Structure formats: C-alpha cells, structure tokens
C-alpha cells in the first residue's frame, strides 16, 4: 500500500518536474548550487558521491565540472544490478556514457571506490519532505546504498517539489540535510535518528 502511495507522489512529482521551464530550472539549479556550497559538510569534503542529473533532474553536471576544477574528488553511481549501485571515481564528465534510463555512467573499466573514502553523498529525489524523507525513481538504489555506511548526506530539493510529508517505509533512510533554493534544513536535529 505504501508503494502505491509512493507511486502516486512519484507520478505527481514527475509531472511537476516536466512542467518547469528551462529558465526556471536554471534559476533553481543555480540557487541550489549556492546553498550546497555554503554547507560545512560540503566545504570540508574531499570526496563527494553525486548523481549525474539529467533531463528534469537538477543539472549536477555543472556542479561536477565546477567541483573537479576546485580540486574535489568526484564519484558517481554505476548501476551493477537490481537495486544495487557502485560509487565510481571520475576525473572528467567525458568518462561518462549513456546507460539505462538515459543515465550517464562510467564504464566497466573504472574501479568502484572504497566506500569509506566518501565524505559526502548528494542524494537525488523526485519528491521530498522537510524531515529528510524522499522518493526517487523507485529502484531502491539509495536506500540500499546509504545503509552500507554512516554517510553524511545532503539532498538538494526544488521547493516546488517539497511536500508536507512523504509516505514512509521501514527501509527509508533519513537524509541529514535538505537544501532548497532558500532554506537549509537540518533533519537530524529535528530529533530523528537513523
Ligand atoms: N541521475 C540519476 N542517476 C541515478 C539515479 C537517479 O535517481 N538519478 N538513481 C537513483 O536511484 C540510480 C539509478 N536508478 C535507476 C532506477 C531505475 C532503473 C531502471 O532501469 N528501471 C526499470 C525501468 C523502468 C522504466 O523504464 O520506467 C528497469 O529496471 O528496467 C535504472 C536506474 C543511480 N543513478
Ligand atoms: N534496504 C532495502 N532492502 C531491500 N529492499 C529495499 C530496500 N530499500 C528499498 N527496497 C525496495 O526497493 C523498491 C523501491 O523502493 P523505494 O520506493 O523506496 O525507492 P526510491 O527511494 O524511490 O528509489 P531510489 O532510492 O532508487 O531513488 C521497493 O520495492 C522496496 O521494497
């Protein structure tokens, strides 16, 4: 039942995402980037695991380029099986090519990163709430990945896609910090634990 509820939220979120004009998206992406870069957890991170945003997602390719230039080490997801992904370090966006669902990924010649090396995970979402709960594309990739280590997590969310409360399931992992264009929300400090 929870899955059906989540699907409804996901559908509604995807529809909203599709309706945003490119210029609104661009504005929102720029504001979100500024917000993420304000975070101490970002500034102190050497290795950042970040999804490669595409289509209606946040265009994180700009962020990746910028952060590589600034000397950060960047790892991106590579799907290796049903609901399972690796973190793979890249040094250039040129190392990515289009895979399933149109997602850009590094190929098999790149090794997976040792997860303990990751200082910060930037988490994707279709819809999310202020408590750090999220709904993604529905593969369960991030829930499975995030429980492997006590990662620091940041989730940039367009405020137009922030909902009152996302339907919750036992396996959902709470994100530490939700960032919108004009808010930084420390979810952990709201009395939640993993
Ligand atoms: N940019 C980006 N990369 C990401 C994610 C994301 O949300 N955004 N992910 C976040 O999780 C992971 C990949 N998520 C995926 C989710 C579903 C399928 C997929 O192929 N699903 C179905 C097809 C569904 C359909 O066509 O509607 C399949 O298995 O055949 C692949 C990857 C890792 N990389
Ligand atoms: N830790 C887990 N162990 C086993 N199954 C899981 C786990 N996390 C999620 N799943 C399963 O994966 C499927 C998708 O989960 P969910 O709807 O939470 O995905 P999502 O958060 O939208 O996707 P994603 O994390 O890929 O962005 C569900 O069938 C769920 O039961």
Automatic annotation (TrEMBL):
<dbReference type="InterPro" id="IPR037171">
    <property type="entry name" value="NagB/RpiA_transferase-like"/>
</dbReference>
<dbReference type="InterPro" id="IPR002698">
    <property type="entry name" value="FTHF_cligase"/>
</dbReference>
<keyword id="KW-0436">Ligase</keyword>
<dbReference type="GO" id="GO:0046872">
    <property type="term" value="F:metal ion binding"/>
</dbReference>
<keyword id="KW-0479">Metal-binding</keyword>
<dbReference type="InterPro" id="IPR024185">
    <property type="entry name" value="FTHF_cligase-like_sf"/>
</dbReference>
<keyword id="KW-0067">ATP-binding</keyword>
<dbReference type="GO" id="GO:0009396">
    <property type="term" value="P:folic acid-containing compound biosynthetic process"/>
</dbReference>
<keyword id="KW-0547">Nucleotide-binding</keyword>
<dbReference type="Pfam" id="PF01812">
    <property type="entry name" value="5-FTHF_cyc-lig"/>
</dbReference>
<dbReference type="GO" id="GO:0035999">
    <property type="term" value="P:tetrahydrofolate interconversion"/>
</dbReference>
<keyword id="KW-0460">Magnesium</keyword>
<dbReference type="GO" id="GO:0030272">
    <property type="term" value="F:5-formyltetrahydrofolate cyclo-ligase activity"/>
</dbReference>
<comment type="similarity">
    <text>Belongs to the 5-formyltetrahydrofolate cyclo-ligase family.</text>
</comment>
<dbReference type="GO" id="GO:0005524">
    <property type="term" value="F:ATP binding"/>
</dbReference>
<protein>
    <recommendedName>
        <fullName>5-formyltetrahydrofolate cyclo-ligase</fullName>
        <ecNumber>6.3.3.2</ecNumber>
    </recommendedName>
</protein>
<feature type="binding site">
    <location>
        <position position="57"/>
    </location>
    <ligand>
        <name>substrate</name>
    </ligand>
</feature>
<feature type="binding site">
    <location>
        <begin position="6"/>
        <end position="10"/>
    </location>
    <ligand>
        <name>ATP</name>
    </ligand>
</feature>
<feature type="binding site">
    <location>
        <position position="52"/>
    </location>
    <ligand>
        <name>substrate</name>
    </ligand>
</feature>
<feature type="binding site">
    <location>
        <begin position="134"/>
        <end position="142"/>
    </location>
    <ligand>
        <name>ATP</name>
    </ligand>
</feature>
């Amino acid at each position: 039942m929870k899955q059906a509820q989540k699907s409804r939220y996901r559908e509604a979120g995807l529809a909203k995402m599709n309706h945003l004009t490119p210029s609104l998206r661009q504005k929102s992406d720029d504001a979100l980037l500024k917000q993420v870069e304000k975070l101490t957890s970002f500034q102190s991170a050497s290795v950042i695991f970040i999804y490669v945003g595409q289509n209606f997602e946040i265009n994180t390719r700009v962020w990746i380029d910028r952060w590589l230039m600034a000397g950060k080490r960047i790892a991106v997801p590579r799907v290796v099986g049903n609901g399972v992904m690796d973190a793979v370090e890249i040094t250039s966006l040129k190392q990515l090519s289009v895979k399933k669902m149109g997602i850009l990924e590094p190929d098999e010649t790149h090794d997976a990163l040792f997860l303990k090396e990751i200082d910060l995970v930037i988490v994707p979402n279709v819809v999310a709430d202020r408590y750090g709960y999220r709904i993604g594309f529905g593969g369960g990739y991030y829930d499975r990945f995030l429980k492997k280590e006590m990662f620091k997590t940041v989730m940039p969310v367009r405020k137009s896609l922030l909902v009152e409360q996302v339907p919750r399931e036992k396996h959902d992992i709470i994100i530490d910090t939700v960032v919108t264009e004009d808010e930084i929300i420390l979810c952990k400090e709201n009395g939640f634990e993993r």
